[in-house]
């Protein structure tokens, strides 16, 4: 797999395409210091999310899975002054750490954090003011539930992105049968196959976080 090779590859492109970013560096440092898992999106992926949100002039974003707020910062920075991002997180320690990181990034007023299981909290969110973009990056077994809620909340023409759908190819490998994380992705794509209300594709990625990918869906 040559992890060093892909790390160098990300570093190479980032050195041209990404600016130095003390706030994002501090976010990762603070998250690491306080024991959060190092499973945030990569910088290159974070910037992709940022640019997608910008391209569609997103004003309202939902995120499922806050962790330390790294992708949250990339996404919220794409919002206009009156924009809003609502993010869901089950772990109170993550909420504390992310709160610090979002304050440090000057984004606390644009980001609303909901503490609790997203499968219970998302249904409480009203769809009368729909969302432009929804990023799902939480526990993988619940992907089908989160996607169903995301469909309810996103506007027509809006976008739903799901992280970690490739998993080093394991999702598509029938030798891995009993992993509920992999099954959560498989169940999701089965669901989408029969759903005339979304069009979707995957964007497989490789870089400092190894081989993985996003699912990109547009609400019809
Ligand atoms: C895991 C979860 C993630 O959201 C991710 O981006 C990478 C790994 C995990 O649970 O292992
Ligand atoms: Mg992820």
Give a quick summary of the entry.
By secondary structure, this protein is α/β, with parallel strands linked by helices. Helix content is 40%, strand content 23%.
What does this protein structure show overall?
By secondary structure, this protein is α/β, with parallel strands linked by helices. The protein has one domain (1-219): 3-Layer(aba) Sandwich (Rossmann fold), CATH 3.40.50.150. It has helices spanning 3-17, 22-33, 43-55, 70-76, 92-104, 118-121, 143-153, 180-193; strands spanning 60-64, 84-89, 111-115, 131-136, 154-162, 198-207, 210-219. Strands 3-2-1-4-5-7-6 form a 7-stranded mixed sheet, with helices on both faces. The chain is globular and about 45 Å long. The mean pLDDT is 98. Bound molecules: 3,4-dihydroxybenzoic acid and magnesium ion. Magnesium ion binds at residues 39, 137, 163-164.
Please specify the SSE layout and strand pairing.
Elements (H helix, E strand, L loop, with lengths): L2 H15 L4 H12 L9 H13 L4 E5 L5 H7 L7 E6 L2 H13 L6 E5 L2 H4 L9 E6 L6 H11 E9 L17 H14 L4 E10 L2 E10 L1
Parallel strand pairs: 1-2, 1-4, 2-3, 4-5
Antiparallel strand pairs: 5-7, 6-7
Helix pairs in contact: 2-5, 3-4
Magnesium ion binds next to loops.
């Amino acid at each position: 797999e040559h992890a060093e090779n892909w790390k160098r590859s990300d570093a190479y492109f980032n050195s041209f395409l990404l600016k130095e970013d003390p706030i994002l560096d501090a976010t990762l440092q603070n998250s690491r210091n306080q024991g959060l898992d190092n499973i945030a999106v990569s910088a290159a992926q974070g910037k992709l999310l940022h640019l997608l949100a910008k391209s569609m002039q997103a004003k309202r974003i939902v995120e499922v899975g806050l962790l330390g707020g790294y992708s949250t910062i990339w996404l919220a920075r794409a919002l206009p002054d009156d924009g809003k991002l609502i993010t869901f997180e089950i772990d109170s320690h993550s909420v504390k750490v992310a709160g610090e990181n979002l304050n440090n990034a000057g984004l606390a007023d644009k980001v609303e954090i909901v503490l609790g299981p997203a499968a219970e909290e998302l249904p409480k969110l009203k769809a009368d003011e729909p969302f432009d973009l929804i990023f799902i990056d939480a526990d993988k077994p619940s992907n089908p539930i989160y996607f169903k809620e995301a469909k309810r909340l996103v506007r027509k023409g809006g976008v739903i992105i799901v992280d970690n759908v490739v998993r080093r190819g394991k999702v598509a490998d029938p030798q891995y049968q009993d992993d509920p994380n992999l099954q959560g992705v498989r169940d999701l794509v089965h669901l989408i196959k029969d759903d005339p209300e979304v069009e979707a594709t995957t964007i497989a990625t490789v870089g400092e976080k190894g081989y993985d990918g996003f699912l990109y869906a547009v609400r019809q």
